Automatic annotation (TrEMBL):
The keyword Transmembrane applies. Its cofactor is Mg(2+). This is Inositol monophosphatase 3. The chain crosses the membrane at residues 6-28. The lineage of its organism: Eukaryota, Metazoa, Chordata, Craniata, Vertebrata. Its EC number is 3.1.3.25. It is a single-pass membrane protein.
Amino acid sequence: MAPMGIRLSPLGIGVFCLLGVGVLYHVYSGFLTGKFAAFFLGDGGAGQGQPVDLRELLAVSIRAAQLGGLEVKRVRETNSLNEKAKGKTREGAEDKMTRGDLLSNRKMYHLIKNAFPAVLVNTEEQVDADEESVPWVPNIPDEIKDIIKTSKEVAPESITVWIDPLDATYEYTENLINYITTMVCIAVNGKPIIGVIHKPFTSYTAWAMVDGGSNVKRRSSYNEKTPSFIVSRSHSGQVKEVTRQTFGNKTEIISAGGAGYKVLSLLDITENKQEIADVYIHVTFIKKWDICAGNALLNALGGHMTTLNGEEIIYTGSDGNEGGLLASIGMDHGALVEKLAEKLPTIQKTHK
């Protein structure tokens, strides 16, 4: 008997080839949409589900604050503010927005999202729909490595980034440039871990990572007996009255712009030595992007930032903090909270 052979019809060959091409296309397209595509599209390994290196995120945050600061400075120096009113604050002051706010916001937001697309970014100003190419080449400067010796990775879904593209906008429109900062804060599971406060007009940047290190050193001494208090000059509410009623009529009170600046004043990082303070207090509603970076910075240096009744501020969910603000370093923070405790019912009733 002649050996049995297998005969393939032209139709069968065609179907087989089509199936093979389909399989190859499926595998190839899956490969492209996975890590291979992430590599060529600049994900840098920080895509959805990839752990985030906090040292690199600190480096990105510093760069973002500095890039935003360049926009803020350029707009102010060319006097091209295009100033607008967004509305009124709860204290009745005009809430302003400028071209500096918007351009800084765009640079800062897109750099962070391009570098770490999987992290949540909350920012003060609305981000335009068109993506801006603000590239990030993965790099951790030696300045950071020299202070923070080891890396720490966290899941991207645990991170919330808070951006303030221009703190003290009201003072910015008045050309009171000493008060102006750009800020980035990294909260992990709601706790402020990384804080960056940049001063655009002096090119100074303060940064810190909790349990990591900082390029800032705390002051050698604070006045616990008769502390000086720094308060808002444009969103003060009744803070001066509350402070003097609580800590004495002769209490020194300093009015200044910008939450970031006020935290720096606690650390003696200010050109005006008359604005160095021991305690920062705020009795009304305040946005979290205004305070998160300062909170992280103080925490990293052994200080505190809490609500008026001593509760930790959680940096997830709502973008506002309703409980007032008390910040100190080198002081008995608990004693300050206790002194305020008897005044809290009055404060809360007044500012509901």
